[in-house]
Amino acid sequence: MPKKVAFLDRDGVINVDIGYLHRVEDLAYLPNALAGAARLVDLGYALVVTTNQSGIGRGFYDAAAFETLMHRIGADFARNGAPLLAVYHCPHLPEAGCSCRKPSPGMLLQAAREQDIDLAASVMIGDKMSDLEAARAAGVGRGILIGSQGIEQLGSNETAVPDLVAAADWMEARDGHQIGAMDALKQLRD
């Protein structure tokens, strides 16, 4: 059965965006990141990280450094009740024209194929409009912007919130509303 997923951008959503983060000792989680991720899991969402990492393509760090950092993030998330289902990254430069770099939907579509994801039942949580543009192109049902960069471009199934706990609150309210509507429809039929 296809699963619903919370796609999480990394820098600016999970951790403080210091620019080309690649060393474990420089990792600093954003307030409420771990708690918010655990709440999303409690709501029935598997977690998939999808992140542009052009620092690899620029030669600032290598894939091994990225993997080491993501292993640490994965361990921290698991310890806090928010295991990561998978991590996808694009190592290419913006001008490479690849299909995986957000706002292209490649990473999300690859994840959907490999992880049996129901895109329409899933949500993308990012700090840039390119995250939500990738989600729209992939057919992801909802989008959440962390912060206010690009807020004027939000669509009807999208919102902006300050952090992952607020994102989980919004998803809980939306899911509760949908469940309530389905229950009401079922009662009308009976």
UniProtKB/TrEMBL annotation:
Catalytic residues as annotated in Swiss-Prot or TrEMBL: D9 (nucleophile), D11 (nucleophile)
Major subcellular site: cytoplasm
Similarity remark: Belongs to the gmhB family.
Site residues (Contributes to substrate recognition), renumbered to this chain: R101
Protein name as annotated: D,D-heptose 1,7-bisphosphate phosphatase
SUPFAM superfamilies hit by this protein: HAD-like
Residues the record lists as binding Zn(2+): C90, H92, C98, C100
GO CC terms of this entry: cytoplasm
EC number(s) reported in the record: 3.1.3.-
Cofactors that this protein relies on: Zn(2+); Mg(2+)
One GO BP: carbohydrate metabolic process
Keyword Metal-binding annotated: yes
Record: residues binding Mg(2+): D9, D11, D127, K128
Site-annotated residues for Stabilizes the phosphoryl group: T51, K102
Keywords: Carbohydrate metabolism, Cytoplasm, Hydrolase, Magnesium, Metal-binding, Zinc
Top class in the EC scheme: hydrolase
GO molecular function, one term: metal ion binding
CDD domains hit by this protein: HAD_HisB-N
Positions bound to substrate: D9, R10, D11, D17, I18, G19, Y20, T51, N52, Q53, S54, R101, K102, K128
Compartments where found: Cytoplasm
Gene3D superfamilies: HAD superfamily/HAD-like (3.40.50.1000)
